[in-house]
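Lab notebook: predicted structure, single chain.

Context: the supervisor wants predicted structures on file for every construct in the current expression panel, including those that have not yet been purified. This is the next one on the list. No modifications to the sequence; it matches the entry in the shared construct table.
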Amino acid sequence: MRTEAKAQRVFRLLLTAVLAAGLLLAQPAQAQTDLGVSTTQTVHPKPATVGQPLTITVALTNNSAPQHVGLKNFFPHDMELVSVTPSQGSCGSGHRHNAVECALGELQSGASATVEIVLVPTVPGKSTNRAIGGGKHSPENPDEATIAVKSAAR
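Prediction complete. Output recorded below exactly as produced.
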């Protein structure tokens, strides 16, 4: 008899847990409000021309709480860096010959900063620029832009 009473208590406990879990699962999910730092790029001109300047503008928008924001940009190996100009903060060469790193300072929630990168393509073809933005409260958020380069006119 004692074993049967224990079994009934265990059954009631399990039934209660299952019903409670079902109620929790039935609640509507809330949308995620922290989208972190969004990163977008524009490339001009399209297509680029070998030996002529190409401008990549990377825009970073803080969709989170105010935070310090940074950018790591990896441009194609077959391009030469001419200049890098941030709208705020500072930028310099990265640890690799085809990289730029920027410390853009604090961005308020909803605010944006841009980094203008001027490159000169050395060979025709297609390649990819990879920009990775992030902040103290946000994971890194990559964005890639395809760059088409045509041969110079003769």
